[in-house]
Each structure stands twice: as structure tokens, then as C-alpha cells.
Amino acid sequence: MPDSIVDFFIKHWPKLTIGLFVVIVIVWGTVYMTKKILHWMGRVNEAHNKCDAVDNRIDNIVMPKLNGMDNTLNTLSTTVTAFGEQILSEAGGKDFVDNNLEILLDEISKNNVKTALDVQTTAPMVISNISNDDKFTSIKDFLYKNPQYKVKPEEESVVSLDMNVITNIMGIYLRNKYLERHPELDPS
Fold first, then answer.
1. 37 and 115 share one domain
2. The last residue of a domain, from among 30, 57, 74
């Protein structure tokens, strides 16, 4: 019997060697691919977790700010409130508009405004566009130093200030200045 096994191996050694080689290659390939698949599944899970973290940050940080911006943009009134006047003065926005009034009015006019609503929409954009000017630095410094502005010093209630809030307040003031010069646009 052992001779028959040895004879069998001697007769069929090329086929057996090739078969063994194929089995080894298949096993090695399977192990290699399994390791790669597990590696990439880990990377996908890691990316998924990072996306969840970003999604949470968007929900908890960015969306409230965007909602606040939306509320700020939707509350443009026809006059600056007393509180808005206070912020406008303390931030230096009133002086900025008054000192650069001709430039700012020209910028609004360049937008071919035809109605008071056009002026209302354009004025904050004009302020925002000029906010990179060196003259605007003191306003940015005020915002940096006062991100939470106390309504009244003796009270605990605060209002969040940022570029959107100040450009909208300044935009209302600028809009009113423009409409004073162009009463034909004011429907009231």
C-alpha cells in the first residue's frame, strides 16, 4: 500500500504540485482580500463616524446660527429700534455710515434700485461688501470684543452680535439715509 501511494505521487506530482499551489494561492488570496475588506470596512466606519460628528456639529452649531441669520434678515424694519441705535452708536456703525455716506449711496445707486425694497435689500449688501475696507476695522474689533452684547449693563440678558447683525443694523440706517435723499422711492 505505501508503494502505491508513493507511485501515485511520483506519477501525478506535477498535477498535485499545481493543485497544491492553486490551493495555497486561493487561501492566500482569500486571507489577503479579507484583510483588505476588513481594513476598508474600518475606514468606512471611521468616515461614517466623522460624518455623524460633523452632522451633529451642523445641527447644534451651524443651523442655530443660520436660523438666527434668517430671523435677523426677516426682521428688517422701517426704523432702527432704540436698542439698534445703541449698538449702531457703540459699534461705530453710525459714524462709519455718516463719514462714508456719499460712497455708500453711490454703491446703492450702482445697483439700479427702483423701489424701497430694492434699497432695503441692497443696503446691507453694500455694507457687507465694504466691510473689508480698513475703515471698518474698528467695527470688527467691537464685534470681536463684544460677541455677547448686554441689552442693559445691569441685566443678564444678552444678544449675540456678529457681522450679519451689524451689517443689517447699519443697512437699515443706510437705507433710511438713501430714502431721505430719494423720497420718490419711499411708498409711505
1. no
2. 74
Q: Which three cell numbers stand for residue 166?
A: 451689524
- The whole domain housing 66 covers 1-74
Q: What is the pTM of this model?
A: 0.58
CA distance 124 to 136: 14
Whole-angstrom distance, CA of residue 33 vs CA of residue 81: 68
Domain count, the chain: 2
Phi, psi of 66 (to 5 degrees): -65, -40
Give the pLDDT confidence of 88-111 residue by residue, as tens digits: 898 999 999 999 999 999 999 998
The answer to whether the CB of 161 falls within 8 A of the CB of 76 is no
Half-sphere exposure of 22 (CA within 13 A, CB side): 6
Range 43-68 burial, b when 16+ CB lie within 10 A, else e: eeeeeeeeeeeeeeeeeeeeeeeeee
